[in-house]
Every structure is written in structure tokens, then in C-alpha cells.
Design goal:
Helices cover 79% and strands 0% of the residues. It is mostly helical and 493 residues long.
């Protein structure tokens, strides 16, 4: 039964506190995606001894679970209460981070990462739900723009905060995340208002199918270079993804309360905005994965200096995000998104040609990427929020969060896979070497410590190739997004 309790009025002062709190919570769970990238070199050389594939899974386990459960978690917030689900999520984030902090091997590390992903999935969509119900209609666009900026800034905060925490052991990163999650829990408990509940069944079969399809897709992408794209395990993974995806669509179209009704995407505007969110974060988090190792291996920078070096990306987000709604109103959604994707693609391509140049050139390209994120984030968030009614705010938040995190997971998997394949191809020949070629810098240096310069050059070449691929994919996918949204606007009455 739907609750009949009316949502109490929220004062303007409390609205500001709620927005600030939810922005910090969002920056925490989004920033954790970026922060782990800084730890990749240390994890590679740690007592865990992860392979290149396991490194990608350490990064992506959190993002995959996050992406796959974010829509069900949004629906759970609609049903059980958004504030309670948000607080539960923060507690689970803290618990999962502590499990990773004490992990003695890769297996337990992955368990902790997945558990943290469950908590993050409960946090992000319910931040949107709480925010929409705590903000009057005339201020929602402004509040959403600031919150969307927090999702972009979260990546930068993760880099800088992660760099500071990783000054000691990689384990301090996870301890720090647990502490911040507990502080956010206390803050949200004090300021976040409760909202009405809506009777809605949770679609467990649909959720399981969705998770399985996404895991199969990423398994094929990550394992392809090592096992061979035509190998039985890889072909089986892609086939399983296709079959599970089809079954999921058929199931969701028949159940009364689907996790996500695929018929929603008949609305070309909503479908285009969802794809656009995935594309924008594909390039962004593909960059974060490459950038962290590139600056540490290629330039020999410390982890803290590497984290600080990402600051140029955040400047447009901090200074320009609040002006994006006005730009959209003046120039329209298609024109704004065209600029966003072209600028993001250009920045990624520019980075691939400045890896050996002085940092100001590299930093300038990071700034350009930030401009693209600044334009895309608020625009796409508003488009998705406008595509669903207010009583489904949790699902709306879940949808835009899911597309963002799926894009992030694919960005890490695809860009990381291309980087590893190119790096392995350009490694110097090791006389007398036996067994498979090293697939991480740590493995390569262990096999041939005298080839440090050649090994780092091979890694830089791989990073350049991966960045150019990310730029091309972002541009081509952006063309599809803008075309679909433009056609939807022309067809609208």
C-alpha cells in the first residue's frame, strides 16, 4: 500500500544542506571508481600478484555491480523509502571497503569490491529521489545541474583524494573510503527528509538476468586479447550476453513491475539521452583508467602528483556547470550535445599526442575533456529526469545512474583491453623468455629489469592507442545520440 504521509515542506536553508550532503555522497561513490585507478600500479606490484585481467576486474567489479543494481535499488527506494535505502547503502559501502582493505588475496578483494558496488547502487539513485522531493519544482533544474556536476567532480575528487590516501599503502585507500562513508551516513541521517513510499514489487528475475548479461559482455571483452577473440570461452561469453539480453527483454515486457521496462526506450528522446550518458562516461572513465598508470609509469610521477594532475578536468565543471541549463535553453539540446561529444573526443585525441610533451600541453587537453563533460552531464541528466514522471524518481535516478556506470565499466574494460593488447605487442623481445608475454608493467619489469625504458615506452604507446580508440568511439557514438535526439524532437507534436 502506498503511504499516505505527505512530504513535509523543506526550508530553503535545509534544501541547501540536503543538496550539499547528497552531492558529497554522490562524489564518494563516483569518485571511488576513479580512485581505484590510481592504485593499479601498486596493486600490480603488491602481494596480491594480480594478472592484467584480474586488475581490470578489481576496477570493474565495483562498477559492474553498481551499474546492474542501481535501477533495482532505485525501485527499492521507491518502495521502502529513499532515505532508509540511502543510509543502508552508505553502511554497505563502508563494510565493503573494509573487506577490501584487509583482503589477503584477489578473491576476497573482488568480494569487497562487489559488496561496495551493492552499497553504491543504493546510494546514487536515491540521492536523486531524495533531492527531487526536497526541492520545489522551480529549483529542480538548478539543483539537478549542481548534482550532475558532483558526478563529474567525483571522478576528480577520487583522483586527488585517492592520491593523498595512497601515500602509504593501497589499503589506506579503502580505509579512507570507509571512514568517509560513515561520516556521510551521519550527515544524511541528520538532514535528508523522508519521502512517501510507493507500492512496487522488486523484479529479482529481471535483475539476475541483467547482471548476468552485463558480466558476460565484460568477460568477453576483458578475456578476448589473452584467450583469442574466436576462442570458445570468449565466443561463449558474447553468445551468453546476447541470449540473456533477449530473454531479459522478453521477461521485462511481460512482468507487471519490471526492473526497467524496455518499452520506455521507444521514446527516442529517453533512449538517446540514456545512450548519451553511457557514451560520455565511457570516454571519461576510460581516460581515468589510462591516465593514472600513464603518469606514474610514463612520467615517473608519484601517486599524489598523479592525482593532482587531473585537476584541469574539474575546472570547467566547477566554473561552468551552472550555466549549462541556460546554454541548452538558448541553443537547444542537440547543439549542446554535439559540442559536448566533439569537444570530449577532441580532448581525448589530443591527450594521445601530448603524452611525451610538457605537462601544460597535456593539462590543456584534460581541460578540453572537462569542457565536454561539463556540457554533457547536466544536459543528459535533465533529459532523462524529464522522460519519467516524478513518482518514479527513484527509477529515473537509477536509469541515469545505470547508464553512466555501464558506460564507465565498458570504458575501463574496452580501453584497458586495448591498452594491454598494444602494450604486449610493443614489448621488447626478452632473450630466453619462456611462457606467455608479460601483460602488466610490473610483470615485464620482473622478467627484464634492464629494459625499463623500452617497457615504459611500450606502455606509453599502448596508452596512446587506447586514448585514440576512446576518442573515435566517443565521436561515432555521439553522432548516433545527437541524431536520435534530433529526430525525436522533430517528431514531437
Amino acid at each position: 500500500m502506498t503511504s499516505t504521509l505527505a512530504h513535509p515542506a523543506v526550508s530553503a536553508r535545509r534544501q541547501g544542506a540536503v543538496l550539499a550532503c547528497l552531492s558529497v555522497c554522490t562524489a564518494l561513490v563516483v569518485g571511488f571508481v576513479a580512485a581505484i585507478n590510481l592504485a593499479v600500479p601498486r596493486l600490480a606490484a603488491s602481494s596480491l600478484h594480480p594478472s592484467a585481467d584480474q586488475l581490470l576486474w578489481i576496477v570493474d567489479a565495483y562498477v559492474v555491480v553498481f551499474a546492474c543494481l542501481v535501477i533495482p535499488a532505485g525501485a527499492a527506494g521507491d518502495k521502502f523509502g529513499r532515505k532508509g535505502t540511502l543510509l543502508t547503502g552508505l553502511a554497505v559501502v563502508a563494510a565493503g571497503a573494509l573487506v577490501s582493505a584487509v583482503a589477503p588475496d584477489v578473491a576476497l578483494m573482488l568480494v569487497g569490491r562487489a559488496l561496495t558496488g551493492v552499497g553504491a547502487a543504493c546510494v546514487l539513485p536515491n540521492c536523486v529521489g531524495v533531492l527531487l522531493h526536497a526541492t520545489p519544482p522551480e529549483r529542480r533544474t538548478h539543483a539537478l545541474a549542481i548534482w550532475a556536476a558532483a558526478t563529474g567532480i567525483g571522478g576528480v575528487v577520487g583522483n586527488i583524494g585517492g592520491g593523498a590516501l595512497l601515500g602509504g599503502s593501497w589499503r589506506t585507500l579503502f580505509v579512507g573510503v570507509a571512514v568517509v562513508a560513515v561520516l556521510c551516513l551521519a550527515w544524511a541521517a541528520a538532514v535528508a527528509p523522508r519521502s512517501a513510499r510507493h507500492a512496487r514489487r522488486l523484479d529479482l528475475p529481471g535483475t539476475v538476468l541483467f547482471v548476468a548479461a552485463v558480466v558476460a559482455l565484460l568477460l568477453g571483452i576483458i578475456e578476448g586479447p589473452e584467450k583469442g577473440w574466436s576462442s570458445v570461452p570468449v565466443v561463449t561469453a558474447f553468445a551468453a550476453c546476447l541470449v540473456l539480453g533477449v530473454v531479459w527483454v522478453l521477461l521485462e515486457a511481460r512482468v507487471r513491475h519490471p526492473m526497467l521496462d524496455p518499452r520506455l526506450f521507444r521514446d527516442a528522446r529517453l533512449a538517446g539521452a540514456s545512450l548519451g550518458m553511457a557514451v560520455a562516461f565511457f570516454g571519461t572513465f576510460g581516460l581515468f583508467y589510462v591516465n593514472a598508470s600513464l603518469l606514474q609509469y610514463g612520467r615517473g610521477w608519484s601517486v599524489l602528483r598523479t592525482g593532482v594532475a587531473i585537476i584541469p578536468v574539474t575546472l570547467p565543471l566547477l566554473l561552468g556547470s551552472r550555466h549549462v541549463p541556460a546554454l541548452v535553453k538558448r541553443f537547444g539540446v542537440p547543439a549542446t550535445l554535439t559540442a559536448a561529444f566533439v569537444i570530449t573526443s577532441g580532448g581525448l585525441a589530443g591527450l594521445s599526442f601530448t603524452t611525451d610533451l610538457a605537462y601544460p600541453w597535456y593539462g590543456a587537453c584534460l581541460f578540453v575533456v572537462g569542457l565536454g563533460i561539463m556540457l554533457a552531464g547536466p544536459t543528459l541528466t535533465a533529459e532523462i529526469a524529464a522522460g519519467l514522471p516524478l513518482e518514479r524518481a527513484g527509477v529515473a535516478g537509477g536509469l541515469q545512474s545505470a547508464t553512466r556506470e555501464l558506460g564507465s565499466a565498458l570504458g575501463v574494460a574496452v580501453v584497458g583491453t586495448i591498452l594491454t593488447a598494444s602494450f604486449t605487442h610493443h614489448l621488447p623481445h626478452v632473450p630466453g623468455g619462456r611462457g606467455p608475454a608479460p601483460r602488466t608493467v610490473s610483470e615485464a619489469l620482473g622478467a627484464a629489469p634492464g629494459e625499463h625504458s623500452a617497457i615504459t615506452a611500450a606502455f606509453t604507446h599502448g596508452a596512446d592507442t587506447a586514448l585514440r580508440a576512446a576518442a573515435l568511439i566517443t565521436l561515432l557514438a555521439g553522432v548516433l545520440v545527437v541524431g536520435g535526439i534530433t529526430r525525436a524532437q522533430r517528431a514531437a507534436p
